[in-house]
Design brief:
The complex is a heterodimer of chains A (107) and B (238). Chain A is an alpha+beta fold. Chain A has five helices and three strands; from the N terminus they run ααβααββα. The chains are: A alpha+beta (107), B mainly alpha (238).
Chain lengths: 107, 238
């Protein structure tokens, strides 16, 4: 999947990966790739600034933790981030229902 | 260059390719050193983690690093995102200085004047009406500037959920420039007008003179920070 297609959904994807868990940057990227079966084709370097932006938005909180013997910045969802994720999921379900209904009708 | 050369090499370490990439990224970024070091430290960790994952998959050290750097993205592309974020971090810091620093200077100067000099009625020279207008405008600006700063801080948080980093950096840069411009204009106007009416009013007492100098220095510093913030944004869109 192309980076431009993904960019519009990156925030929601990052929130979804952090649902109910705390992860450091590379673990988030791995989770994204794992969940998409490697289809997400995105420069991983753009994920880190996006995480900082979501933190400034109040949706993520971060701290430096020791993970596997190394110090890493780890992220978790805030309450506000959980609400944003729920809203994104509802919006996505509505979107896929509507678009799927129209596109699927031709087959 | 903090955050780039403090790693060890080998497994879990930043090798030559990773270091070279980070040096390139560092060279492209402009902004507060502490924030930049923090962003680069996280980038280094991500690159090391990626290289480690490739090593664990059987790749040689060099190939593992090469793949880690390649998947991180071309430095010009990644630097654009990092610069936007760096600009925002620096911008938010500047906004807090505007919100807290400008009114604090005004309040401190007023208290210093009351404690060390007394009421304005003691002034030996008369005050023309036009000067009163200038003084009121300047005092008004002291409250307008932090209000703009607060709105920018709130707007930045809200817009972080809706705008991409580049447009967000532009929004922040414009409001910082506006607030800093109003502050500089009001300070310059007040000092200039006071100099015309009676220059001794600038030096009512030693604490007042010291605070006046501090106020001017703070205003100059804010101009530098605003220029830096806008320069960072200009780098992104260039």
């Amino acid at each position: 999947m192309k980076a431009d297609t993904l960019r519009g959904h990156l925030d929601a994807l990052l929130l979804a990966v952090l649902d109910d868990r705390k992860l450091h940057g590379y673990a988030i990227i791995e989770a994204l790739q794992l969940r998409s079966d490697g289809a997400l084709d995105l420069p991983t370097g753009t994920v880190y600034p996006a995480l900082r932006r979501l933190e400034r938005a109040g949706w993520l909180a971060s701290e430096w933790d020791v993970v596997s013997g190394r110090k890493r910045r780890t992220y978790r969802l805030t309450r506000s981030g959980q609400q944003a994720l729920a809203a994104e999921r509802a919006e996505w379900r509505e979107f896929t229902t509507v678009i799927g209904g129209v596109l699927g009708a031709g087959s | 260059m903090a955050g780039v050369h403090d790693g060890h090499r080998g497994s879990s370490g930043g090798g030559i390719l990773i270091d070279e990439y980070l040096v390139d990224l560092d060279r492209r970024l402009h902004g507060c050193g502490r924030f930049k070091a923090d962003l680069l430290a996280e980038a280094r960790d991500g690159l090391r983690d990626a290289a480690d994952a490739y090593r664990a998959g059987g790749w040689s050290d060099e190939d593992a690093e090469r793949r880690a750097v390649a998947e991180f993205g071309p430095a010009p592309v990644v630097a654009r995102e990092y610069q936007a974020e760096l600009g925002m971090l620096s911008g938010v810091r500047t906004l807090w200085k505007l919100v807290l620093g400008v009114p604090a200077m005004q309040i401190a100067w007023d208290y210093a004047r009351i404690l060390t000099y007394g009421e304005w009625t003691q002034l030996p020279t008369s005050t023309p009406d036009w000067y009163r207008v200038v003084a009121h405008a300047s005092h008004g600006a002291v409250f307008v500037v932090p209000v703009i700063g607060l709105l920018a801080l709130l707007g930045t948080r809200w817009l972080s959920r809706r705008l991409d980093a580049v447009r967000l950096a532009r929004f922040c840069g414009i409001l910082i420039a506006l607030a800093v411009g109003i502050n500089v204009a009001s300070v310059g106007l007040l000092i200039g007008a006071t100099g015309v009416v009676d220059v001794s009013r600038l030096f009512l007492s030693v604490p007042c003179a010291v605070l006046m100098v501090a106020w001017v220095l703070l205003s100059i510093r804010l101009v530098v920070l605003a220029r830096r913030s806008w320069g960072g944004y200009a780098t992104i869109v260039a």
